[in-house]
Amino acid sequence: MSKTIKAIVYERHGNPTEVLQIKTEPWPEPAVDEAIVAMRAAPINPADINAIEGKYPGRREVPAVPGFEGAGVVVEVGANVSTIAKGALVILPHNIGTWREALAVKASELVAVPPEIDPVHAAMLKINPMTAWRLLHDYVDLGRGDWLIQNACNSAAGRAVIQIAHELGYKTVNVVRRAELVDELRAEGGDVVLVDGEKLRDEVKNATGGAAIRLGLNAVGGESALRLANCLAFGGTLVSFGAMSLQPLKIPTGLLIFKDLRFRGIWINKWYDDATMQERMEAFKALFDMARRGLLKTKVEKAYSIDEAQAAVAHAAQSKRSGKIIFEFNA
After folding, report:
1. Closest by Cα among 136, 135, 99, 94 to 111
2. Helices vs. strands in the chain: H and E counts, helices first
3. Domain residue extents for the chain
4. Catalytic member of 10, 56, 139, 170
5. CATH 3.40.50.11440 is right for the domain spanning 130-267
6. Mean pLDDT, consecutive 10-residue segments, the chain of 331 residues?
7. pTM score over 0.85
């Protein structure tokens, strides 16, 4: 009997709990420049849900396999592959669909991960920690002791910002919506954790001794983003990478005229598309080093099998989670 794999597929865009199906497909065959990767873990990110709904840029042709992120082990290589060996733990490219048991991938697009890193952590290094790394390096030149401010700090990207900033010696003001998160985020390395509200600017000033904050990181939008912008120093930069409130940024003209603020955005998929392999690997090297030392960890709330796709996406859509929802695949 020929070997098969299971894959999560959608044949039309819509509500993930309604459109996702489990399909059985033949075991993939590698082309001469490809490797076969047996998946170990793949998270459910907001972008994955948006892509299934048809609300994400670069809308995929259907039928499609979802999943922008994941890690697996190379189990077979094509005749011309010399860059990656069987048995290597690898991170998958973002345009391939990771919610399946195995797949054929161009070997040149795989990123080998140090074997000491757990496959579950490896599966979640490419989007949120890399976004955090770029946010802290590409917009404002920060030095040790400099402050930044962020909302959505309970998200995977927000927690990665705290962890990476702490390691680099930057100080973070972390704005949350729920008071019960304060102690937890402080324990994780957040220097200041405040509950969002109308008096945020004064509270930030008191907590930081009036320090100049030149970098703000926004994943919420709406009023929250405006309160962050109001905390920034003259010439500061607010970088947006999410819109959890589904509200647009409303920027009073005075903030532009009298504070000369800059407003930027980041889409990590575009960064990957434009970066050279050397630029990617430089950043991965730093992230791998932190992950190896246990300084960079993405919290997982629950792992599901591929057969539980509907339950997994329903769980991932819930707010007030304490960590990521992931698929784990049988080794």
Report:
1. 94
2. 12, 15
3. 4-124+298-328, 130-267
4. 56
5. no
6. 88 94 96 97 94 85 94 96 95 94 96 94 95 97 98 92 97 94 92 95 97 97 96 98 90 93 94 92 95 90 95 90 90 54
7. yes
